[in-house]
Design goal:
Layout: H1 2-13, E1 16-17, E2 31-34, E3 42-44, H2 53-76, H3 85-89, H4 97-126, H5 128-138, H6 144-154, H7 158-170, H8 181-202, H9 210-233, H10 235-238, H11 243-284, H12 293-309, H13 356-364, H14 372-377, H15 382-402, H16 423-437, H17 450-467, H18 475-523
Antiparallel strand pairs: 1-2, 2-3
Transmembrane segments: 59-76
Subcellular location: Membrane
Membrane topology: Single-pass membrane protein
Amino acid sequence: MKVNEKREKKLMRGSLCVRKALPHDLPLMAVMVQQIEGMRDIITEKHVWHLSDKAIKNVYMFYIMFTCWGCLYFGSAKDPFYDSEEYRGDGGDGTGYWVYETQEDIEEKARAELWREELIEEIEQKVGGLRELEEAVTKMPATDFQGSFGRSLLSLRRDQVDSTTVVAGSSSHHNHHEPSNMEVELDSFQRQVAEKFIDLNASSNDLLSLEWIGKLLDSFLCCQEEFRAIVFNHRSQISKSPMDRLISDYFERSIKALDVCNAIRDGIEQIRQWEKLADIVISALDSHRPIGEGQLRRAKKALIDLAIGMLDEKDHPSGTNLAHRNRSFGRVKESHHRSIGHFRSLSWSVSRSWSASKQLQALANNLATPRPNDVVASNGLAVPVYTMTSVMLFVMWVLVAAIPCQDRGLQVNFFVPRHFQWAAPVMSLHDKIVEESKRRDRKNCCGLLKEIDMIEKTSRLMNELIDSIHFPLNDQKEIEVKQRVDELVQVREALKNGLDPFERKVREVFHRIVRSRTESLDSL
């Protein structure tokens, strides 16, 4: 009996039983039952459901409909953060990027302020020795030599002023009124400004070229230095009314000019990106190698990028969506709101909301000729303040007109009365630039700079030529391509040789304005 029982247990261990616990149309897999001595039975079951194609389709349809319903339901519900009154009240736009953009704007302003403070501190250290020398001069006895020595420190036209004074003194017995040193100095300043702009009018054939704008900046620097000398020589009268109000207004406007200089540096960086694209075209169509289809495709792509980058974003908001430089967080987002026209330096100098047009309007706001009583009360010093303010406004207006800027515009009410010596040449240049901006082929351009016009025309002709090329390339087409490449090389060389000196002059204008403001405020 015991032997038979053991045999039955062994048979049950390896037995395979098939059972149907569900309806007939849902068969189950086999269930293997294995009994282990001394342990409870372990039963493993696997079920296979056989679904038809229609049933599978219904399952997927239900899943899709449920997902769509969830998106619509939760999308219509109010978000506790993005739809809150606090978030919307702070200017939130409903996206998570707004928080980062606000932080970036704060960082930009902080960097700009820190940079300005460091620059002012550096300038103060450099002019420290000059101040000590000036203090020593003021402690000297009041002699004619002291006035000449003080002017020798800061005036660029010392010899002219001294010679004019000598001539006036020698002929005093022929005149009823002998002009004072101040009158001679102020008249000399007016003549200098007039001479500078007359020279710029004489070279108007190169109007708005890098070389011409460089001459304009040199003229501004000379006028700025002469004006700084006038302020220093008559600083005792600057602190009195109404000069304290006029000079304070001038320095407030000069701060706005600093922002324009920063924006111009960004525009120069943008032009450098166009120069790199022109280099790609020149490299692809090198005259020392045969031209193939791959080279033409590469040149074509670079020309398209160049054409898109040179579009004016104000008139073509949807056509300039190519690329942008990453900001401080290093994130690439919202590329549809950037363009190749916004290549900037690694430290952004102006915020996204900054507008060149509005900045010029702020510079020109309430700028009027000095009133007669102010001229009399200031002994004529109100006139050079107005002159320097007008010259600064004109120079900044020319820079914005020529160089690509953020939200650039030329709609500034600029007018100088004809009784000023420098009014006629300045207004003549102003009218010429306005006429240039109204030309049909310059209306939608991103800048009136002559080199920009040249590279735009050359790249457009090159693009049209490439579109007309069919392979195999004949000799005539190959010669035309080489000619266009040579023209593009000339334009590229003009930009390469002119941008660096131009940028240095813009930087020098910035530093000179800061230094003049710092020294003048310290001397008051």
